[in-house]
Amino acid sequence: MPHHRGLGALALLFTSVTVGRCVFPTERDSSVHVSITPLKILIRGNDTVAIATAWQVRGPGDSVAIPNVAFVWTSSDPKIATVDNAGHITGVKSGTVDIRAAAANFDKSALPGQTILRVSAPLEVDSVRPQTVTYGETATVYGVGVDSIFQMSMGNAVLIPYAFFIPPLRDATGYAQARFWVPPPAHTDSLFFIGNGVFGFTRDTVRVIRRDLYEPNEIAPASVDLETSRPFPGTIWNFLLFFNPALSFEVLPRDVTVGADWYRLQQSQTRDLTIALNSSVPGTFLTFLTDSLGFRAADTSYFLGRGAWTFGPSFHACKGAAFRPKEAAAESTFVAFHDFPAGSVDAITIYGQPGRYSLTVAEGYALSDPRIPRDAHEEDKMRRTPSRSCSLGCPTTPTSTRSPSRTRTMWTGSDLTFPARSPNSFASGLPPGRSRRQTRAISTCTC
Fold first, then answer.
1. What average pLDDT does this structure show over 55-62?
2. Which residues neighbour 373 within 8 Å (Cβ) at sequence distance 6 or greater?
3. What is the CATH topology of the domain spanning 124-211?
C-alpha cells in the first residue's frame, strides 16, 4: 500500500507540472496580447510572410513570449491583399489593408495583433513638396519607388535630378524621396514621371512663380557667401562652393529689350576660384566680372569704381588694343582665378532673350585642356599696367587696369562690339530705354 500511495503522489505531481506548463488559465486571457512584425511595402503581384508573437503581460513593462501558439490570420480587404493561416500574404492591387492575427488558443479577451500593409505598384508618387516653387528651387517627390524616376517634367520643362550629385533617400519600409531642380520654362502644372517601367502624372499640382529665387537682382546684387553656400558638403562634390543649374533669364516686357542678373560673390579667405556661367540661349548674353560695380538710379546705368578691374567680352578694348576679328559667340563664360584674395567679385550678365542658365563657382583652378599648364597661356595679364586712355570715345584721363590675382580665360566670347554711347559709358549695343531694365550701361573708362 505505501508503494501505491507513492505512485499516486508522483502522478499528481506530474499532472500539476503539465498543467502549469502547457495550459494558460482562461481567466487570465486578458493579459495575453499578440504583436505582428512590421511589414515592408508589398509590390502588387508579390508575396511575403508575416510573423506574429503572443505575449503574456506580467506587469508594467514586463512581458514574456508564449510558445506553441497558433494564429488565425485575416485581411480587412482581400481585394487588396490576401493572407492564409500561415501568415502568407499576397498583394493583389494598390491600396492599404489591416492584417490581423488572433491567438487561437485563447478566448476573445486576448488582444489580437494588427499591422497596416501597403500594396503598391513599383512606382507610385504620393506627394510633391513644396507646393509653390520659383525657378532654381527644388521640388521633392515622395512615394514608393520614386528613387527610380529617371525623368520628371512639369509644364514643358524637364526637371533636373538632384540625384546627379546626391542619391535619393529610401527608408527600410520602402518609402523613398527624390529631389529635382525646377528650371524655366516650367509653369504651374502636375508633374509627369517615367521610371521603373511606370509612367504617369502626380495628383499634386505645383504652382510655379516664373522668376528665379535670386530675383530681384537687377539694380542691386544678390549676395552669395561662398563660405556657407556649398550645396554638397561632405561629398565628392565638396569643391563646389555654389551651384544652381536652373536659374532664369526672365521673360522681358514687350517694350523692354534687355535685362540683367547681378551677383556679388563673397569669400573670407584666399583660394583658387573658377566661375562658370552656361546658358541654353548662347550668343544672347554677356557676362562681366569686376571688383567694383554700382548702379546709378538717376540714369538707370551701371558704373565701375575708379581703378576697378574688369573681365568679360571686349574688355581688351579698354587697353587701347584693337581686336579683330570679333570674338565668337559662345555658350559659356568660364574664368579661373589663381589665389583670389578675400573680398568680393561682382558678376553681372546682360541678356536679351529669356532662357535657362546655370551658375557654378568651384574651389580650384579649372583647366579646359589638361595639356595647358596653369598660367602658361594667359590671354591677358590683368595685373597693374601702365596708364593709358580708352579707345571707345572715353575721356582721355589716364586710367589703369589692376587685379588682385592672375586670371585666365577658359571659354568666353561675344560677337557684339560696344560703341560709345556717351562720354563716360558705353551701352550694350541697344538703344537707351525708358525703364530701369531697358538700359544696361557699364563704364569702360575706369576699367
1. 83
2. none
3. Immunoglobulin-like (2.60.40)
